[in-house]
Design goal:
10 helices; single chain; globular; four-stranded antiparallel beta sheet
Amino acid sequence: MNNTLQFLLNSDYIKPTRNFSLAYLIMDSVFIIFFIVLFFVTKRRITAIFSLLGGLLYWIVDFGIFYAATGSREIFSYSFSDYENTLVSLNPLGIAGVLFWMSMSYGILDFAFIWLWLSKDKKALEFSALIVVWWICCPLLSDFISNAFPSMLCFQTQRTTDKYHGIMGLIMVVGYIIVIVMNIFNKDQTKKIPIVRLFVIGFLAQFLWEFLLLVFGVRSQTYGSDFTRSFLTLLQDSLVETNLGMPYIYFIHKAITKRYSDDCKRIEPKKLN
C-alpha cells in the first residue's frame, strides 16, 4: 500500500490547520468592517445583511457544532518565534473569541461573494477582486509585522473533517437532488435553475480563499512538505463545504430579490392592465 493511500485511510487525514498572528486578526477585522461599510455606502444593504448573517451562521456552526458538539475543532496559542515550545490549548472563552473572528471574516466574505454573483451585480468583479487582493496581502503584511515583533501572539486552528463531512454530503445531495428534479419536470426552459452556475460559484467561493491560505502559508503548515495531503484537504473542502448550501441559498436569494431591491426598497408587484 503506497503512502498516499495509507494517508487517505487514516481517520485524521483530512485535518485542515491554519495559523494566524494577532496582527493578522486585527488587520483582517478592520478590513471586514471597511468591506461591510462599503456595501452600505454603495446601497447594497441586502448584500451586507446577508453577508453578516452568513458570518453569524459560520460562527454557530464552527463553535456550536464543530467545537462544542463534535469536538472536531481545536485552537492553540503560541509565540511567533517559538512555535514548538509555546503551543498552548485555549480555554472555551478564548476559542469562542477566535472562532467568532474567523467565522465572521470568512463567513462575511464567502456569503458576499455568493450573493454578488447570484445577483449578477454590476460590480461583482470589483468586489471579488477586493476580497482576493486582501487574502493575498494580509498574510504578507502580518508576516512582516510578526517578524518585527518575534514575541507576537499567534493562533493555530485545527479540525478533523471526517467527523462531519458525511452529514455535509447528505445536506448537499438533498439540495442538488431538489434542484435537479425541479429542472427535469420544469417545461419552461427559461425558468430552469442554473445548476452549473450554482456549483461553480459555490466551489470558487471556498476554493479561492482556501487556495490562497495554502499558497501564503496560513493553511496546513503542520503537514510539512506533504503537498498531496494539503491539496486533497483543500479540494475536498472546496467541493463540499460551501457547495452544500448553494441550492438553499438560491431559493433564499430568489425569494428576497423578488420582493426587495438591494437598497432594501420593496418591489411593488406589476399590475396587469
